[in-house]
Specification:
Length: 164
């Protein structure tokens, strides 16, 4: 008969066995090579930090204040401002005044910026699809289901740090 401590120890061993794979995956995906490949395939010629700002605004689905972009990306506002300026020069975003506060700028992707973000996303999707091309349909469904559950549970568990 297993005691609670023995069961927890087995669970700890299972999680510990997965950790090297999580590190391997994080390293593989976070390397600049994948981002650079997707940006090149999409024909994007801006620095990666600026493109991250464009993606953040595009994925929001609505224009954002610079402070909102900074908060979403967890970086400081002056950094976002510099990146927005680069994106503006390239015609990928437009800046308009907030009708409620003229001191504040609202940032939105231009048509060209939206198209660039969509080409980038398509390139990444194609790359990941190729990585699992030899998997069975069931394995791909299981990955999607379990990865979504894992991401949701990790995110919820991390929120407990904020509650302290």
């Amino acid at each position: 008969m297993n005691t609670g401590a023995e069961a927890a120890g087995g669970q700890d061993d299972e999680v510990l066995a997965v950790m090297p794979r999580l590190t391997q995956l994080a390293n593989a995906v976070s390397r600049r090579r994948l981002v650079e490949h997707a940006m090149a395939a999409a024909g994007i010629e801006v620095e990666q930090p600026a493109f991250s700002v464009l993606l953040s605004v595009h994925l929001a689905g609505e224009p954002l204040r610079i402070s909102e972009i900074a908060e979403r990306m967890r970086i400081v506002q002056p950094h976002v401002t510099r990146q927005v300026q680069q994106l503006e020069r390239r015609g990928l975003v437009r800046r308009t005044g907030d009708p409620n506060d003229r001191r504040v700028s609202i940032i939105a992707p231009t048509d060209e910026g939206r198209e660039a973000a969509e080409r980038y996303a398509s390139s990444l999707i194609s790359w990941f699809t190729g990585a699992v091309a030899d998997w069975s349909e069931q394995d791909r469904r299981d990955l999607g289901r379990l990865l979504a559950r894992f991401a949701d549970d990790v995110t919820a568990h991390l929120a407990t740090f904020d509650d302290r």
